[in-house]
Design brief:
homodimer, Arc Repressor Mutant, subunit A, 156 residues, alpha+beta, DNA-binding
Chain lengths: 156, 156
Amino acid sequence: MRWSTANCTISRTMEVLGEKWTFHILREVFVGIRRFDDIRTRADIPRQVLTDRLAALIDRGLLRRVPYRLPGQRERYEYRLTQPGLDLYPVLVAMVQWGDEHLPLDGGPPLISQHRDCGEEITVVLRCAAGHEPTPREVAFRPGPTAQPRIVESAD
Amino acid sequence: MRWSTANCTISRTMEVLGEKWTFHILREVFVGIRRFDDIRTRADIPRQVLTDRLAALIDRGLLRRVPYRLPGQRERYEYRLTQPGLDLYPVLVAMVQWGDEHLPLDGGPPLISQHRDCGEEITVVLRCAAGHEPTPREVAFRPGPTAQPRIVESAD
DNA sequence: TTGGCTGAGTCTGTCAAGCAGACTTATCCT
DNA sequence: AGGATAAGTCTGCTTGACAGACTCAGCCAA
């Protein structure tokens, strides 16, 4: 394949999600842990790093700060998912699914995602526009409209 | 929630996939780029880092080294996905899907995944065991069998 | 009204990791 | 013998991760 990957979607996505603690933070927020110290102590993230990552996630529009106030406390902020953040759900579920299969714990998974309405467990499946559900081997990548021919440096 | 995340599947998965260049490398291998220098120049990864990541991915069982020989060249090795590696396909597709939606390029995506048999585009969908296809908001996490009560340090 | 508590940070110094650029190695071809 | 090539290793600089201490704002109780 003679296509550049300079503008690849994976690269652009990893710009936003690619740093070490990002998914840990998103996991916490997804399960309902929204406050700085709760996230920090549960995920065991260094303060500085958490500060930086939260700022980046807000900057990128995946989280937003929402004021809250505990009785007898001053107003503080908690972190909630925006719609773009919520849309990462399939990524999280796919990762958990992979981890539960390939890095299993004795006794079963520590965390299960379920359909709120019926309580049944949730998985991700691959599906093509024609309704088939291919296995990974039945899938291929092809260049899209904005694929760029790769620039090969000429010898000089 | 008073559950520890010390053994969370996301943590265990990120141990394997969480470093900066890992997904870039997997992307290359998924699209059929399997050789050291091809991966390095296309993804623009420092040599040292690529060496380290490939070794880690082999160590974790996501890639394997396969000997090959170009005409008039000595035998070398290329890197191919193992079954656990191939099983990451839904994660990659979910990430690409998210990126194409939330970090779009003018003119459309640079890379499209398609069903090999029918050529139709592939997406991931969330589905529960009862056959529903919930949106992210209709989904919840709950502790599984190996969830551990969180240890809260007592003040002393 | 002073002093302490709490959540959410910032500051500082150390140490590991990322990275670029040069060098190495093994094999093949001419 | 000399050159080409793929796949590395080596060296040194720079950036980021991290722990531990410090800060800051508002609230409360004495």
